[in-house]
Design a protein that fits this description.
Blueprint (H helix, E strand, L loop, with lengths): L24 H14 L7 E7 L5 E7 L2 E3 L2 E7 L3 H8 L2 E8 L4 E11 L2 H9 L3 H9 L9 H14 L11 E15 L7 E7 L5 E5 L3
Antiparallel strand pairs: 1-2, 1-5, 3-4, 4-7, 5-6, 6-7, 7-8, 8-9
Helix pairs in contact: 4-5
Length: about 210
């Protein structure tokens, strides 16, 4: 009878060498992002967001990446949720992408800050109406007596905004993670994986190093 300890996969699809990576980690991420898109990975933009409270109590959950560029990596949420409260106390965060189909992982560490209200408005207006109403209906992370509370709230806001564009609630919007470390991990045989790490220097350049697996 097999056990959890018996579960193993031998990684051997790709390699990752210092000579092959771009000097800019965001450009390198973009290259891997395109590979992931072309691999038809389901919810390719899903990543783990790790935050910590003022007392250094950690918390992690899955969020969806909605944009990235030289300025950082963007996701959206309820500002009054648990993650929102932690981000107001301690903006240092980590993001982790795992694309198992490519045997790749990307780790990002940085500082999260709210995006401009206009940017949140633009993204919010692109969402399906049900998602817009859901942002109003759900007091995210708050205890509720039963699901009827949410259904009642949804019905209330459906009536309130009937026949008009649903506006973005002020408690909902985006965060941009400005990276100071990005690590690219490529699975290799015998657990001797390739790991290339970029660290942001004080002069704004990126230091590239290979890490032991």
């Amino acid at each position: 009878m097999s056990t959890i300890a018996d579960i193993r996969i031998e990684y051997k699809k790709h390699t990752l060498n210092e000579a092959d990576v771009n000097k800019n980690p965001v450009t390198q991420f973009s290259s891997w992002w395109q590979d992931a898109l072309q691999s038809a990975i389901e919810e390719v933009n899903a990543c783990t967001l790790a935050t910590a409270s003022a007392e250094s109590k950690p918390s992690a959950r899955i969020v969806l990446l909605k944009d990235f560029d030289e300025a950082g990596f963007v996701f959206y949420t309820n500002y009054t949720s648990n993650k929102g409260h932690q981000l107001s106390q301690n903006p240092n965060v980590a993001l982790v992408f795992f694309w198992k189909e490519l045997e790749r992982q990307v780790r990002i560490e940085g500082v999260a800050e709210k995006v401009l209200p206009e940017e949140s408005d633009t993204y919010f207006n692109s969402r399906p109406e049900g998602s817009k109403l859901g942002a109003w209906a759900s007091p995210q992370s708050k205890p509720i007596e039963d699901r009827g509370i949410i259904e009642h709230n949804l019905e209330k806001y459906e009536k309130m905004f009937e026949g008009q564009t649903v506006p973005r609630p002020t408690h909902w919007g985006g965060y941009r993670v400005k990276p100071n470390m990005i690590e690219f991990w490529q699975g290799r045989p015998s657990r001797l994986h390739d790991r290339i790490q970029y660290c942001l220097e004080k002069d704004g350049t990126w230091k590239i190093e290979r890490l032991a697996p």
